[in-house]
Specification:
Number of strands: 0
Largest sheet: none
Shape: elongated
Strand content: under 5%
Radius of gyration: 20 Å
Number of domains: 2
Structural class: mainly alpha
Helix content: 55-70%
């Protein structure tokens, strides 16, 4: 099928990879696989997360198209910046607290534990 764009060797690689992916059970095993196979993911947690979702979370992966690393690396710090901004608004300003009481409870417990550790230093 010359010129069709379909390469049987690439298909075989996909089938072989799928067999390997099915054997990986823990998050650690899966992350290690991604870090080994996709060296760019070693430099970007954002890219690592996207690859993890694409490879292992089938329900979520259908919503994430392939994004080349060259594009993603420009947004590497975005998620962390968003998380930090949310944390600052909620913790420092006391605004827009979680609406789920369990989330609020867990965050307060974690905050208290961190304060205890910091006070010991």
């Amino acid at each position: 099928m010359v010129g069709s764009g379909w390469d049987p060797e690439l298909y075989e690689d996909d089938v072989a990879e799928q067999e390997v992916l099915e054997e990986l059970r823990t998050v650690k095993e899966r992350v290690e696989y991604i870090l080994r196979k996709y060296p760019e993911a070693r430099n970007s947690d954002f890219y690592l997360i996207v690859l993890y979702i694409r490879k292992f979370e089938k329900k979520l992966s259908k919503y994430i198209k392939y994004i080349p690393y060259e594009v993603i690396r420009g947004y590497d710090g975005l998620f962390e910046s968003i998380r930090r901004a949310r944390q600052y608004i909620q913790n420092t300003e006391g605004k827009y607290l979680p609406t789920d009481p369990e989330v609020l409870k867990k965050r307060r417990i974690k905050e208290q534990a961190i304060r205890k550790v910091v006070n010991r230093l």
